[in-house]
Design goal:
Layout: H1 15-20, H2 26-32, H3 36-39, H4 48-54, H5 59-68, H6 78-87, H7 91-113, H8 128-145, H9 157-161, H10 175-198, H11 202-220, H12 236-251, H13 255-275, H14 286-289, H15 293-306, H16 316-327, E1 329-331, E2 334-335, H17 351-361, H18 364-373, H19 384-396, E3 426-429, E4 434-438, E5 447-452, E6 455-456, E7 468-472, E8 475-478, E9 509-510, E10 519-523, E11 525-528, E12 536-540, E13 552-559, E14 564-572, E15 587-593, E16 595-598, E17 606-610, E18 633-638, E19 643-650, H20 654-660, E20 663-670, E21 678-687
Antiparallel strand pairs: 1-2, 3-4, 4-5, 5-7, 6-10, 7-8, 9-15, 11-12, 12-13, 13-14, 14-21, 15-20, 16-17, 17-18, 18-21, 19-20
Amino acid sequence: MTSQHGSPELPPAFPLAAAWGDTASAGNLVSLLAGARGRLAAPAVGDPAWCAAAGPRTGQLQRDARAERGTPWPQPLVSHYARYFRDGNRTAYEGLVGARQQRLTRAVVLALAAQPGQNPDPDGPSGAAPAWLDEVIDGAFLLCEQSSWSWAAHDDVFTRTGDVLPDLDRPYLDLGAGEVAAQLAWLDLVLGAELDGRAPGLRRRIRDEVQARVIRPFLDRLDWHWLGLDGDVHNWNPWIHSNLLAAALFLVDDPWVRALTVARCIEGLDRFLAAIPADGAIDEGFAYWWNGAGRALEGLSLLTEATGGALDADLPVVREMAAFPHRMHIGGSWYLNVADGPAQAAPALPWSMLRRWAGQLGNADAAAHAEAADSGEPAPAAGLGRMLRPILAAGAHGVAAGPSVGEEAGPGSGSVVGAGYPLVPFAYLPSVQVMVARETAGSSTGLFLAAKGGHNGEHHNHRDVGSVVVAVDGVPLLVDAGQPTYTAQTFGPDRYSIRAMQSAWHSVPAPAGQEQGTGREFAAHVVHVPAAGNPVLGLELGAAYGLAPGQWVRTAALDRDARQVRVTDTWDLAAAPQEGAAGDGTSITYLAAGTVRIGTGAHAGTATISPAGIPVPVPGTAATPGNPATRGAALRWEPESAVVLVDEWQLDDPLLAGVWGARLTRLRFRMSADNRAAGAFTLTVEATP
């Protein structure tokens, strides 16, 4: 149930507590978790299950591992750490840390696949298994020696002391620390006996470091912002808690400390689930779903397995969360991106995890989508745990690697399920006021429309209230730029001086040239709720600019019969307000990707956008012989008297350029003097012939 303004029905408070009760208390977990490691135990190194599951799927991984073995390990230095505090650069340090951990992950996989008489490294010397074990030992020891597991961008050392060196006596528990702890935990689970034989003492060192850097800070302090005790729950919560679960289950030997840590993690995950609206929407969007809701699903799976099924999480909110990724799919590798999200799916996503959950929940659409998206090639950037889980499921526990698809599709899908992506025709998530609709169910051919309301106090917020995305044949052409490379500025007081975050560079209006405000009060209000047969979202946008209610209304509609997208803005500003920073009166912006051509002469009032220049990152997805991404978008607008101002955005940011190519183009439709204070403007989009 929702109100006419799209206020979501909230899920039951603390769903895990309601479902599990005292079963999940620390006292009961002591006995429930007895034998947990055995329930998750992997086959021995060299077992045929590892070679069958890992060998054929790790071609690139093996090539990379052979190339780097014997070379110096990536070495993050204090100068890299200090750069964040000096000049705001965070990638210099995080890149080296990530490279070190990915190398270790590759070594673990190859050590597992090695078996007597079968050398997984045909280009290497004999006795490869000990060599891969030594690679693992060196990498694990380097992590133990690393002064900080926290990323510099998160560490509070500078704000507390003014120092740019990590404080060894006060380790900061952040995403980076959780990732290292979990990597060491999974490594210990699958290679523990081999480590004891090859490097006695290393496993004790690992346990001591995890206890000091992660477990004790977690149990001793309740002031971590990501706990969500203040009601602000975001993706750090499940990301860290799911990693802490692995660390507690595999590296904490004291039964009470293990049970207490797991109980605290359950409480934390419960706060996250309680904050998820009933429709399962994530305000951070598709990309952050994987490191938010996806991490929660991984943690819940680990709890179920560790307790022998005593803690099962088939809950309504979980069902809706699992449906979110496929509902946001545009086509191929393209997804609706909001906030700090790229428009293309990363290559290292754990689709097999979502596929298993979808099968368990009986959501055929989600399972089919995950199966189609899963390349089957494990990616070290995903993390060791995410690489090992599908291998463990397929090889160690005899679980089919493919989906277990239920007979019925998830709620509100209505899709055509078959080979490949389900491509649902319509979805509306009232909690975030997001509508997606496509011209033809089960096909990326034709038009796709996404329209967003929401507010400007969302997590990873961009000033994007009222924005639209339009795709043709599965490729977005009216777009949201998405995430640039993170720096200190990204999450600082100057965030909205970054172009990608400003409403001036989103497909939204600018009443009297004004920029949208920041905060929950700068919000849209739904005036027309869309439906599957009538995909029209009407939004009152005045509040996003600090205007009075009713002063600006935007309607975004997909007309399947006419094969058109129409976005209509109407406004009545009473008296022309003081002009904003743009200084050119009322205007309406659309951000385009590809090659833009503005019509002239007899074609005035029109434009075309072709996908030329937009990268196709994954061969066979966005542009294949069966789905040629050659058609573009034809635009026309009324009134034709609006002046079109064209601004080229040359993309020097590697993340943005990797998604969109060399540039994005802003089309600003400046209203004539007689309709700046009151008027209407309609943009119509069709696919080119």
